[in-house]
Structure formats: structure tokens, C-alpha cells
Design a protein that fits this description.
267 residues, mainly alpha, 11 helices, 4 strands, globular
Length: 267
């Protein structure tokens, strides 16, 4: 009974939903920096903001899907992730739920590409697209570890606890914070960090691929890198360094791919 109560407390105290706000703003800033003039015009029209105000709005709105979640508006909860299961103790794997992050991205593209869809609906799905493309590149949003202890999965690493770290109390939170890399707080800091990533990971070198492939790659990183940390152990310097490096790459990929999706829709 005490174990059940403890588990419920852990579940309901979980705060690591996604890349933190800084991560989503970085993805959005990189995407904005790589939007074509036609894509900027399209986004301005959909959001009904002036083009000179679009950058600020585009970056700020990237956290909207998390903001409404904090207000107990949970109808979009399943769109933040795709729980691709894996196991190391031969536990039975469950099916992937169909309404997930990959589905959300594809649905958003269909809506935005439709001439019959009204502007309000397009604005909603554009907000979803900006956010979820970021989410799906966070490795713990594409994975859940199934075991005898957690036969229905560990909630994307939220139940994978380790010794206290300034960057999170569980695996999911630790990766949400990019092991400390995602600490930009102001628009200026976000631009500086985005330009750093754009220089090191140029969009012209990024393979676009499909949302399913983005999820598969994120899942591979989670299963082979993120979960290499033993439970109840504090992340060492090597683990922290590798997590930060991977975070940089995944944030840059997400921003570039989001820009390319929007540029294609606007062309």
C-alpha cells in the first residue's frame, strides 16, 4: 500500500512534460531564422500578427501547448509524445497509441495545407505543429521502458529516478533541461544560443526525413544513450556532457525541420 501511495505521489508531482520552455523557444527561434519570406507571410496571416511582430510571437507561442496543460486543459496531452516501448528484461511490450506526436504533426500539416480550413483552426494547428516538432526530438518523448516493475512503461523516464541533480530528479526531467544546456531566459539569450546552434549544425546539412523517422531516431537515442544511466545513480560528468551534445543536435534538427515543413507549406 505504501508503495502504491509513493508511486501516485511521483506520478502527480511530475513536472517534466517536454523540452523546457527554453528548449521550445530555441527550436522556434532556429525555425524562424530559416523561414522563407513566403512562410513568414503565411504564418503572419494565420496568426493575424504583423510581420514585424512575427518573430516575437512565433517564439513565444512555442510553449502554448505546455501552458494550457498547466491550466488543466488536457485534451491535447497525448500529442506531446509517442511512447515507443522497449524492454531489457523481455517484458511484454504494449501497442503504441495511435493519437500521438507523429499523428499530431501529420494532422497539422493536412490542416494547414487545406484550402477549406478556416483561419482559427489553422492557427490552432500551427501552434501544435511548432510545439510538437520540438517534442518529438526529445528522446524521452519517443520512448518508454517496459519492465517487470513497470509493465505499462515508465512514463518516458519520469519513473526512472536517480540521485539528486540540479537538472532534474528523474531521467525525463534531466533530458527536458538538456543537462543544463537549456537555460536561456531572455529573447536575447535565446537568439544568441540559436545562432550558436545554427553555426554548428547548419540547416543545409540536415536531412528532412519523415516524422516517423524523427521519432525512431529519438527512440534510438533514448534506448541506447539516455537509459545507460543506472537508476538511483547521479549523472557523472561524461553523461552530462554527452546529454548536452545530443540536446544541441536534437534542438537544431527540430528547428531546421520545422522551418522546412513551413517553407514547403508556403511554397
Amino acid at each position: 500500500m505504501r508503495r502504491l501511495v509513493l508511486l501516485l505521489l511521483i506520478v502527480f508531482s511530475i513536472t517534466g512534460y517536454t523540452w523546457n520552455g527554453a528548449g521550445h523557444k530555441l527550436v522556434a527561434q532556429i525555425a524562424y531564422d530559416n523561414l522563407s519570406p513566403h512562410a513568414k507571410k503565411m504564418c503572419s496571416q494565420i496568426f493575424q500578427v504583423r510581420e514585424q511582430d512575427l518573430e516575437s510571437y512565433f517564439v513565444t507561442i512555442s510553449t502554448w501547448l505546455d501552458d494550457i496543460r498547466k491550466k488543466n486543459l488536457r485534451q491535447f496531452n497525448s500529442l506531446h509524445y509517442i511512447d515507443i516501448p522497449f524492454t531489457k528484461d523481455k517484458s511484454k511490450l504494449m501497442r503504441i497509441k495511435p493519437r500521438n506526436a507523429v499523428w499530431a504533426i501529420k494532422q497539422a500539416i493536412l490542416v494547414l495545407n487545406s484550402a477549406k480550413t478556416n483561419n482559427a483552426t489553422k492557427a490552432l494547428y500551427l501552434k501544435i505543429l511548432i510545439h510538437v516538432v520540438g517534442d518529438i526530438h526529445q528522446p524521452l518523448h519517443a520512448s518508454t521502458k517496459v519492465s517487470r516493475r513497470f509493465p505499462k512503461g515508465d512514463l518516458g523516464g519520469n519513473l526512472y529516478l536517480f540521485s539528486s541533480s540540479p537538472y532534474g530528479k528523474n531521467l525525463h526531467q534531466y533530458w527536458d533541461n538538456g543537462a543544463g544546456f537549456l537555460n536561456n531566459k531572455t529573447p536575447q539569450e535565446t537568439r544568441i544560443k540559436a545562432h550558436f546552434l545554427e553555426k554548428n549544425y547548419p540547416c543545409k546539412l540536415v536531412q528532412q526525413q519523415k516524422p516517423e523517422q524523427w521519432a525512431d531516431r529519438a527512440h534510438f537515442i533514448a534506448a541506447n544513450q539516455a537509459y545507460s544511466l543506472r537508476t538511483h545513480k547521479k549523472p557523472n560528468k561524461d553523461y552530462q556532457y554527452n546529454t548536452r551534445q545530443t540536446t544541441e543536435q536534437q534542438i537544431a534538427l527540430a528547428g531546421c525541420r520545422l522551418a522546412r515543413v513551413l517553407n514547403t507549406l508556403a511554397s
